[in-house]
Amino acid sequence: MTKTDLAAFGLADQWHGFWHGPIGDWILTRGLRIGLLLIGGMLGARFISWLAGRISRRIDNGFQESDALVRSESAKHRQAVASVISYLAIALLAVMVTVQVTDVLDVPVSSLVAPAAVLGAALGFGAQRVVQDLLSGFFIITEKQYGFGDLVQLTLGSSNDAMGTVVDVTLRVTKLRTQDGEMYTIPNGQIMKTLNLSKDWARAVVDIPVPSSADLNVVNEVLHEVCETAAEDPSLKDLLLDPPQLMGVESIELNTVNLRMVARTLPGKQFEVGRRLRLQVIAALTRAGILTSADGRPVVHSADAAPRGEALVHPATVGGAEQQTQGPVQR
């Protein structure tokens, strides 16, 4: 027998002795079970995430393939609930794996009571904000305050507001996408007030200023005609729930009289409807002979004596004015 054979036999004896020793026996029994539990837990978490994503995509595809212009309230709520359930399922799976691992290691549960009490006290003092976020998120979901795709304005303090479209809702945070493409990640516990701009239905409000010396009878006739034709407009009839209505004089100022037109629209479509109504109002007033004078003050003539000229420039068409009066512009 050569030295090589002797070395090989020695290595085989050491390998055999290792796997039949205490370390090898622990690896083959408890270590293997712990490894399988951890791998199974990770695979289970990946499957839950995949399933939640599949459900969300199915809901989203159902909306995109339908003829609906906006998501229904039930669809938005189901998508939010799917995200929350996946979060809770993964947390529950992690707890179950942890309990199984402690059982394999023969760790007595009674010995964990004291550390658990200390950990609970530490969490009670140091993680109050997390608990507050989770509780707030639970009530947001169960009360259906808002869901995926809603346009909301969240008040975070006395002077801090966040407005955007909801792209994700979990028990801890709400994510908003602004009209500029920015992403807000807001802990639910910091939300003091919720303003949902796309709940069930919305209302477009169009304020129309005219000079106090204007012939309001002519203006009312023109605006009533706009209300009647807007309901038949192909670009508006699918967005409107009711024909627009002229509410009349809203306010009287020193040199102007403000008239208001309102229209009930699909959720989140009030800004688009408001912009299109303003275009129709300007066109109708121009045809009726309502001009803008050289000094910038609007002048309203009667339909018989009115000359043709420039259209009345509505203050809401000026950059930034619509956000102050009607809310953010949705692009």
Provide a descriptive summary of the structure in words.
By secondary structure, the chain is of the alpha+beta class. Among the domains are: 3-107, no CATH class; 202-325, Alpha-Beta Plaits (2-Layer Sandwich), CATH 3.30.70. The protein has eight helices and ten strands. The strands form three sheets. Strands 4-3-2-1-5 form a five-stranded antiparallel sheet. A three-stranded antiparallel sheet has the order 6-8-7. A two-stranded antiparallel sheet has the order 9-10. Helix 2 runs antiparallel to helix 3 and helix 6 (216-230) packs across helix 7. The protein starts with a helix and ends in a 6-residue tail after the last helix. The model is unreliable at 292-331 (pLDDT under 50).
